[in-house]
Amino acid sequence: MARYTGYLAPLRNHIDTFSTPFYWVANIPQQVTDWFDRNIVSRQSLIEENQRLVKESLIQRAELQRMDALASENSRLRALMNSSELLKDKVLIAELIGISPDPKVHKVIVNKGRKDGVYVGQAVLDAFGLMGQVVVATYHTAEVLFITDDSHAIPVQINRNNVRTVIEGIGDLYQLRLRYVPSTMDIVEGDVLVSSGLGGRFPAGYPVATVDSVNHDPGKSFASVYARPTAQLNRSRHVLLVFSDNDINTDIVESDIVGSEQ
Amino acid sequence: MRWLIAVSIILVLLLSVIPLPFVWQQWRPEFMALLVIYWATYSPDYFGVFMAWVSGILLDVVELLPLGYHSLGLIIIAYLANLAYQRIRSYALWQQAVWVFILVGIYQLLCNWVSGLMNKPIETNEFLIAAVFTAFLWPLWVMTFRMIRIRFRIP
Fold first, then answer.
1. Which of A106, A160, B95, B117 is positioned for an S-S bond with A149, CB 3.0–4.6 A?
2. Block mean pLDDT (10 aa), chain B, length 155
3. CB contact, 8 Å: A136 with chain B?
4. How confident is the model at residue A150 (pLDDT cuts 50, 70, 90)?
5. pLDDT at A252 over 60
6. CA dihedral defined by A239, A8, B28, A137, rounded to 10 degrees?
7. Is residue A40 within 8 angstroms of chain B, CB to CB?
């Protein structure tokens, strides 16, 4: 019923709040071990970690300066091309408090909900790439559907040559499948696939997967291509919820069309 | 009696969402099926098909699945357990465990059937592992509840 009609959707949003306390309680042991990990550490290891972090921060600050220069150059070039400036996406950091108990459903629950401005359809990232999208937002929590779930597909493009395609989950945490890849398409192992922003749901330019295997079977009309998600779907405890501004993307696309007509 | 049923349902809901790594999830015992079989066999006056349906809906809400996913299987095994409780209760615990294995197998068959309607991939043999674990848990479960019921003088 809930799958075929939308009548129960508002009801569903309210009763899902009922599930929140169970996930909170089930997460307590994890939080206790986290607390011990944070608080019971030797002085020596703290000093070592501190030194490592200082070094890392220095390196990253240097890289950031270069990035700043590149970003401003990029926006200047975009201004030259008559399109609006790409704004930085706003993000919200959330913590994972539960995973779907059903192994066939790749869904997790995070501890940010409607009260933090989370909305249905919001993209979710970790430090390595795109993880999925919010499918249900209750008041305190949100359910995130992973890109590997077999009901999920996302428009991507190959970073190397900007060819657009669609990648879908097959219910395997380490594999995604590219659908309808013509045998003539330029795609090789190791290609990085980034979100293309088409469809307006996901922000453009985030890494999604790297191509694992490309197999051209002469007997079939499409090549079978598999990719591995770059996000660490079963390891990340902290995720980023992106607030993207879809108008910007459509602006660029429109002005690109105008530019090509001239 | 009623509070014990309520508390056990809440505990089982909690056990059903304790986080496990993705690869271990298919081995999680079906605690709710165990609970329904236990109550429908040992207190058929208090726990019948309706209560099985209610606990199934609660499990669906907590496990974020379409409403009715678990209820269908649970009402059928509650009905079967209610039909046979007089005979089953006179068996030894390990013989009851075989009966539990069969009921949980039926329950998982129905759940997998619903999964199939949702175009989910169907696990072939793995779901039997969970059924075996559930059957192994049965003697432990019955003995625990026997102790609780003697301690709190619940008939």
1. A106
2. 90 87 78 94 91 93 85 94 91 93 92 83 75 92 92 82
3. yes
4. confident
5. no
6. 10
7. no
A232 touches chain B (CB under 8 A): no
Parse chain B into domains and list their residue ranges: 2-14+26-151
A76/chain B closest Cα distance in angstroms: 46
Q: Give the tens place of pLDDT for each residue, A162-178.
A: 889 999 998 888 999 99
Q: Does B120 contact A171 at a Cβ distance shorter than 8 Å?
A: yes
Test B61 with A16 for CB contact under 8 angstroms. yes
Q: Give the tokens for residue B131.
A: 């059924």
Query: B17 vs A136: CB contact, 8 Å cut-off?
Result: no
Question: Does the beta carbon of A15 lie under 8 angstroms from any beta carbon of chain B?
Answer: yes
Identify each DSSP E strand in chain A by its residue range. Answer: 90-99, 107-110, 123-125, 130-137, 142-146, 153-158, 164-172, 175-182, 192-195, 207-215, 222-229, 238-243
Rounded Cα distance between B61 and B65, Å, is 7
Q: Do B14 and A25 touch (CB under 8 A)?
A: yes
Q: What is the mean pLDDT of residues A101-129?
A: 86
Share of chain A above pLDDT 90, in %: 19
* Minimal C-alpha gap between B111 and chain A (Å): 11
B5: left (phi over 0), alpha (psi -120 to 50) or beta: alpha
Residue in the structure block whose two tokens are 């759940």: B111
Residue A260 has pLDDT above 60, yes or no: no
CA angle B17, B25, A31 (to 5 degrees): 45
For A5, the closest chain B residue by CA position comes to: B66
Average model confidence (pLDDT) across chain A: 81
Q: Do B64 and A171 touch (CB under 8 A)?
A: no
| Measured distance CA(A120)–CA(A145) in Å, rounded | 11
